Amino acid sequence: VFALATLVVISLAVSFMSNRVNDLLKNQGQMIAGKQSYWLGYSGMEINSTNRFAGITAGTKTYTLE
Question: Is the pLDDT of residue 55 over 70?
């Protein structure tokens, strides 16, 4: 009886932890996708708006926020 109760407790703990790990991985994937879309949008905006944000050249960047 003790072994059966121990198995039940261990299986519940493993099930709970696997659900937490799955939730963590899902949320982390969404966070990474959000950061990637932000930086892709920012770099595209910087390239397209050379007179507003920065030049494409590798020299010093001048910012003219009009």
Answer: no
